Amino acid sequence: MKILVCISHVPDTTSKINFTDNDTKFDTNGVQFVINPNDEFGLTRAMWFKEKQGASVDVVTVGSKETEPTIRKALAIGADQAIRVDTEPKDGFQVAKELAKVAKDGNYDLIIAGRESIDYNGGMVPGMLAKLIGANFINTCVSLEIEGDKATAIREIDGGKETLTSSLPLVIGGQKGLVEESDLKIPNMRGIMMARKKPLNVVEPVADGLSTEAKKFSKPAPKGDVKLVDAENIDELIDLLHNEAKAI
Amino acid sequence: MSVLVYTESENGKFKKAAFEAASYAKGIAKQLGIETFAISFNAENANDLGTYGVEKAFNLSNENFSKFNAEAYAEVIAEVAKAQDAKVIVLSQSANAKYLAPLLAVHLEAGYASNVVELPNTENGFVVKRTAFTNKAFNETAITTDAKIIGVSSNAYGLHEAETDIQVEDYQTNVVLSEAGVQVQSVDKNKDKVSIADAEIVISGGRGLKGPENWHLVEDLAETLGAATACSKPVSDMGWRPHSEHVGQTGKPVASNLYIAIGISGAIQHLAGINASKVKVVINNDAEAPFFKAADYGIVGDAFEVIPKLTEKLKEFKANNA
After folding, report:
1. If you average pLDDT over residues A32-40, what whole number do you get?
2. How far is CA B185 from CA A147, A199, B56, B67, B97, in A?
3. What percent of chain A has pLDDT over 70?
4. Which residue range is the domain that position B157 belongs to?
5. In chain B, at which end, N or C, are there fewer CB atoms within 10 A of the end residue's CB?
6. CDD domains attached here (chain A) (predicted)?
7. Do B22 and B151 have their domain in common?
8. How many angstroms separate the CA atoms of A220 and B272, rounded?
9. SS3 category, B130
10. What is the greatest pairwise CA distance in chain A?
11. How far apart are CA B282 and CA B289, in angstroms?
12. Residue B206: which CATH number?
């Protein structure tokens, strides 16, 4: 089985979010970049397939040279080789088109991407990628088993779960649940050393034009102070929620 | 030319998110001076969409489409969008809508903006305001393609009534379900409980509750208010509660009207995930917990004493205000 894991290079979840250049660009100053958490669950699941069922695992990212430490980390975790599409990711559709080219060239059976990146939260790349290459697609995937050329997956729906089957090739939008948080792989020294020798192929972009353009950023208005209610005076809280906040 | 809204139903009934999406679609249609059309699947009363300004509803009544199928639904919506020359297609941000929107975007070669919170600015191009960085920021995004797809965040635009004479068409599709595609085998849905995505009120518990055996406090309060239950990341990581209840940056986003956090300190990732909720209440015995800086109302106190009292008082309140 040939697996491709799509990796997005995103600010760590604890990052302070600020903007520069007249609020048109994300301020990367002092920000630690990591593998997008939704992708990381998928990467670990891919490693599981590699170890238990035999599979090759490639990783791909769309981004400039600055993303290389992130993709190297994926190699250190155990991916066999990496591909970097050398262009600035500006739009989900553009990224999906770049990934579609890589996916077609590699003829993969299974492509795992995160359901969304935690920076722009577009939530569109996996589905677009699937449609562009004519593969099946399962979103918000929290469990995945592959037997032969058949996949069984569980998808999270609003208020429950759905069990689905699909033929391959398949693209999934993965998230936590694909593996447990405690099973996430942390690169060890041997993995880090080996990652240095693994191939990282840089390829030229193919997508032409953008469908959206991110313009200005802003931050939510600062909040007023919390109104504290005495623990002995629950009636006051109910009164505030009813008459002031109109929330109950 | 038209604005087309996908109005999602469940067991034939429209979800609130469908009416909110219809309201939003009407808002755009008014701006652009064009009509508002809706597409629904096996809806029992498509006429209800007239309340929110829909002029014409295409309702597909077909047993084959009784189970949600992202691929096939996207194809049907694309079929209608093309036939009706839809310039803008509006969807909610339910799990199903998020699933099919990117497929639809490829069908229509349309730019797609998700998590949109306001009507677009159409004075100079077509610019929408959407949340980014998991509610830590907003981003103004221009959609530059001819056809445009917008996913409207839950509870952001709200319901806007605009009573309209609606025409309902029994829609016939040429789309054939693929045998080779993704097949639903079973659906496991808790029918007695409101989901986090659909809930007006969410009650969330953290490590301060000390163990899963104490969750009746959260559940009783939730039941009293008709609320969904949720939890913090450590709680789901420790297996006290299922992952599906984890709210925060790597879990589910919450955009409810009221969010009550019990024994949750308020890590930055958690606060990001719930930031879109309108009214936030925190109950924590640690007055220094960061959550107090993000909340509208707070009680410094022991959850094990405060919550039963709060539940009791709310029961009285509900009885008196029924």
Report:
1. 98
2. 16, 40, 34, 10, 20
3. 100
4. 2-170
5. C
6. ETF_beta (cd01714)
7. yes
8. 11
9. strand
10. 67
11. 9
12. 3.40.50.1220
Beta bridge partners of B260: B203, B281
Residue A61: beta bridge partners? Answer: A84
What pLDDT, on a 0 to 100 scale, did the predictor assign at position B223? Answer: 96
Residues in contact with B176: Cβ distance below 8 Å, sequence separation at least 6, in sequence order: none
Instruction: Enumerate residues 6+ apart whose C-beta is below 8 A from B116.
Output: B128, B129, B130, B150, B151, B152, B153, B156
Render pLDDT for B236-272 as a digit per residue (tens, 0 to 9): 999 999 999 999 999 999 999 999 999 999 999 999 9
Select from A13, A160, A175 the Cβ nearest to the Cβ of B269.
A13
Distance CA A176, CA B248 (A): 12
Q: Give me Rg for the CA atoms of chain A.
A: 21
A86-97 burial: b if 16+ Cβ within 10 Å, else e: ebebbbbbbbbb
Which candidate, B249, B230, B214, B49, places its Cα nearest to that of B133?
Answer: B249
Looking at the predicted complex, does its ipTM rise above 0.90? yes
B240 in the same domain as B146: no
Q: How far is B239 from chain A (nearest CA, A)?
A: 10
Task: Please name the amino acid found at residue B263.
Answer: G
Closest in B95, B186, B251 to A158, CB measured: B95
What is the count of residue pairs from A and B with beta carbons less than 8 Å apart? 265
pLDDT at A141 over 90: yes
Q: Are strands B127-132 and B137-143 parallel, antiparallel or unpaired?
A: antiparallel
Residue A125, pLDDT score: 98
- Is there a contact between A159 and B134 if contact means CB atoms under 8 Å apart? no
Find, in chain B, the residue whose alpha carbon is nearest to that of A239.
Answer: B317
Has residue B181 been placed in a domain? Answer: no
Contact between chains at A13 and B182 (C-beta distance less than 8 A): no
Pairing of strands A110-114, A2-6: parallel
- Answer whether residue B230 is part of any domain: yes
Lowest mean pLDDT among A49-63, A73-87, A180-194, B86-100: A180-194
A37–B138: do the CB atoms touch at under 8 Å? no
| Domain map (residue ranges) of chain A | 2-216
Give the integer Cα–Cα distance in Å for A217 and B215.
Answer: 39
Question: What letter does residue A67 receive in the DSSP assignment?
Answer: G
Looking at the structure, do residues B138 and B19 belong to the same domain, yes or no? yes
